[in-house]
Amino acid sequence: MSNVEQLTSLDQKLTTDEVNALDNPDQLFAISYLRGHLDLYMADNESASIAGFKSAVRGAFSQDKLIEADIELVEAELERIG
């Protein structure tokens, strides 16, 4: 599977997960955060990859001024998605 196919598959998975997380605000936040960054990442990177996406998300934590609790939620989702 190509990098683009992997990222498209991840986007589809996160979309499904987002719907399933509607009753869990913390998980919903983390998934929505990842989906937003995934859209931006895929639009800005011709050689996008899962590893590059994870690195970009982690690099955005300080710029987005996330608190430690939110970082932990997003990190947990990153681990869950593989």
In short:
Helices cover 80% and strands 0% of the residues.
Structure report:
- The model has no long low-confidence stretch (mean pLDDT 93).
- The two termini are 15 Å apart.
- Helix 1 packs antiparallel against helix 2 and helix 2 crosses helix 4 (68-81).
- The protein is mostly helical.
- The longest helix has 20 residues, at 25-44.
- It is built from four helices and no strands.
- It is globular, with a radius of gyration of 12 Å.
Provide key terms for this protein.
80% helix, mainly alpha, 82 residues, globular, 4 helices
Number of helices: 4
Low-confidence stretches: none
Largest sheet: none
Helical amount among residues, as a percent range? over 70%
Computed CA radius of gyration, to the nearest angstrom: 12 Å
Q: Which geometry do the CA atoms define?
A: globular
**How many β-strands, per DSSP?**
0
Q: Give the termini separation.
A: 15 Å
Order of helices and strands: HHHH
Briefly note the structural class of the backbone: mainly alpha
Strand content: under 5%
Mean pLDDT: 93
